[in-house]
C-alpha cells in the first residue's frame, strides 16, 4: 500500500526493504530464539557442574523454542493462507497477470527468504551446537 501525503509509510515484511520497519515483536521473538539456542546447548555442559543450572537451561531453552515456534507457526500460517487465497502459485505457473496484492505477497515471501535474522539464527545454532559438541566430547572422553 502506498501512503497518502499525511501518512508515514511503515510496512511489515515487504520487499521495499529500505522503506520498511520490522515490528518490535519480531525482534523480541528473534532474541527469544537466540537465548533458547544457547540455553539448550548449555544443558550438557551444566550437567557436569550443577544439576539445577542444567534444569534451568533446559526449561529456558525448550520454553523459548516453544514460544518462538508458536510465533513462527502463526506467521507462516498467515502467509500460507494468503498463498491459498490469492492462488499465487497457480498464477505464476500459468503466467497470469498479478494484482498489486499478489506482488505484495510475493515480496513478503522473498523478503522472508532473505532474512538476515534467520541467517544469524542459523549461525547461532551452528556455532553453539559445535561448541556444545566439542565440550561434550572433551568432558566425556578427554577430561581426566
Plain-language structure description:
With 144 residues, this protein is mainly alpha-helical. The protein has one domain (25-135). Helix content is 75%, strand content 0%. The protein has 5 helices and no strands. Helix 1 (24-47) packs antiparallel against helix 2, helix 1 runs parallel beside helix 5 (116-142) and helix 2 runs antiparallel to helix 4 (100-113). The radius of gyration is 21 Å and the shape is elongated.
In terms of per-residue confidence, which ranges show pLDDT below 50 for 5 or more consecutive residues? 1-11, 15-19
Q: Beta-strand percentage?
A: under 5%
Count of domains: 1
Element pattern in H and E: HHHHH
Helix share, percent = over 70%
How large is the radius of gyration?
A: 21 Å
Class from secondary-structure proportions: mainly alpha
Task: Label the overall shape.
Answer: elongated
What's the number of extended β-strand segments? 0
Main sheet? none
Distance between the termini: 64 Å
Oligomeric form:
single chain
Overall mean pLDDT: 83
Q: What is the number of helical segments per DSSP (H or I, 4+ residues)?
A: 5
Amino acid at each position: 500500500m502506498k501512503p497518502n501525503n499525511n501518512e508515514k509509510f511503515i510496512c511489515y515484511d515487504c520487499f521495499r526493504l529500505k522503506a520498511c520497519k520490522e515490528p518490535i515483536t519480531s525482534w523480541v521473538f528473534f532474541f527469544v530464539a537466540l537465548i533458547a539456542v544457547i540455553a539448550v546447548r548449555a544443558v550438557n555442559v551444566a550437567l557436569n557442574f550443577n544439576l539445577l543450572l542444567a534444569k534451568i537451561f533446559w526449561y529456558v531453552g525448550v520454553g523459548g523454542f516453544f514460544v518462538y515456534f508458536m510465533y513462527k507457526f502463526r506467521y507462516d500460517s498467515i502467509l500460507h493462507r494468503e498463498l491459498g487465497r490469492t492462488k499465487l502459485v497457480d498464477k505464476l505457473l500459468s503466467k497470469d497477470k498479478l494484482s498489486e496484492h499478489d506482488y505484495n505477497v510475493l515480496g513478503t515471501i522473498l523478503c522472508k527468504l532473505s532474512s538476515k535474522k534467520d541467517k544469524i539464527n542459523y549461525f547461532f545454532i551452528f556455532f553453539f551446537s559445535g561448541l556444545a559438541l566439542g565440550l561434550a566430547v572433551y568432558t566425556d572422553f578427554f577430561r581426566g
